Structure of Acid phosphatase:
Amino acid sequence: MGKALSCSLVFLCFFMPLAFADWNILTQKTRSGLRISLKNYCESWRMNVELHNIRDFQVVPAECTDYIGKYVRSTQYKVDSERATEECLVYLSTSCNLKKDGKDAWVFDIDDTLLSTIPYYKNNGYGGNKLNETDFEDWLGKGKGTALEYSLNLFNELKSRGVQIILISSRREYLRSATIDNLVNSGYHGWAGLILRSPADELVSVAKYKADARKQLINNGYRIWGILGDQYSSFDSPPSCTRGFKLPNPMYYVA
């Protein structure tokens, strides 16, 4: 009996890993019966992140980290980003009655809006692991973020039209000096305000912190015509601007 039980356990231990190893997204189907490839699965996941159908995720699905990494380094990512910034200018040219009195304003986020954190994620996985905030902030403090070309072009175009640029970031206040240096070294000059999170702001969500910052700007007389950010939390809480524009970012979610 003991020998038979031992053989059975060996049999199960041998075949159970094979059973789990046999699970593969390539063999999966949707609920309607459609056979899907790994690319189908990951592209659908990415698209639904951008549509804000998928929220509050902490990590990218393990099957999709390579796909997400390829996307954020791809021409498609650049095309998507360029289109978003072009739409900002179309809107500004057709729908904004600028007063040109120093109170017309546009709000930008910083990380993955003006400065790319892709170099950090390249060395730490494209969203497949929960973010180590201490490690990430150490990286931010070194000023290694790189300019996002189309955001820089938009930044400069808005300035040339007399629009005041306000930066509202979830970066902490102690990173102010490093943030300014990184922005200037990346080609960003002449913003009218840089708002970072104080210790008191850390007690509330990013969405509320940014909404409170916008409310203060409005109370100070600014007309916020638009916001560009990579997260919905940059513009989806009242008081809202006239228009919010989202850049692609499937690597992480900030509420």
Observations:
- The first strand starts at residue 104 and ends at 108.
- The radius of gyration is 23 Å.
- Residues 17 and 23 are 10 Å apart (CA to CA).
- Residues 1-23 have pLDDT under 50 and may be disordered.
